[in-house]
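In practice, a research group might receive sequence data for several interacting partners and want a quick structural hypothesis before committing to experiments. The following worked case mirrors that situation: the sequences arrive first, and a predicted assembly follows.
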Amino acid sequence: MTNMNASAGDSLSLALGALADPTRRAMLARLAQGEATVTELASPFDISLPAITKHLKVLERAGLITRSVDAQRRPCRLRPEGLQPAADWLEGYRALWEQRMDRMSEYAERLARDEAERS
Amino acid sequence: MTNMNASAGDSLSLALGALADPTRRAMLARLAQGEATVTELASPFDISLPAITKHLKVLERAGLITRSVDAQRRPCRLRPEGLQPAADWLEGYRALWEQRMDRMSEYAERLARDEAERS
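A structural hypothesis for the assembly, expressed as tokens:
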């Protein structure tokens, strides 16, 4: 019996876990438009500043954003290349869902044809 | 101030959360080869059967697998189309990381050229 149960702290798991929250995804969408301060990032959300900071820490730990250490404003920046491993993992399954979609539309076409022949 | 903090139970968050675990990703990789019983899915892992069952429930709730209710073996099947929303979300950022990669290789080429000119 091989132990395939790798640490949940691996970078792919961290990235996917960070993305599994709608507030954090909305923050990344905002940062895709350009860098933003914590206050700017917080403004659309009806949640506390400590909660925002916690979300930012999750994103930073997952390698999806960076924060400048020297500048006083400490703007956050998207680190888009941090998303690539998750996208690559999912792409490995694309052929499977596309085959499924093809089979489903073939089936729907066959049903429609049978229906037309009967009537 | 708009409340953009949608429920973390939305289907995209559920799918990403389910994927944020190496054991669950390994189970999906196994199911991509074909249906499997719980015992078959459990065999490569050094974890308890209740833990395996819990992982399967997370995957099922996220719409990434299905389990037959009638058959005695109750095999699990991959539901690959459940992965598509997560892949679509990530694809929205592909242009950003590709631009970044292009800029990084341009920068590396410029450094190499400058170095060659100096020597």
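Before designing any experiment, note the following. Chain A touches chain B at residues 1-8, 10, 12-14, 16-17, 19-23, 25-26, 28, 32, 43-47, 78, 80-81, 83-84, 86-87, 89-91, 93-94, 96-97, 99-101 (CB under 8 Å). Residues 98 and 104 of chain A are 10 Å apart (CA to CA).
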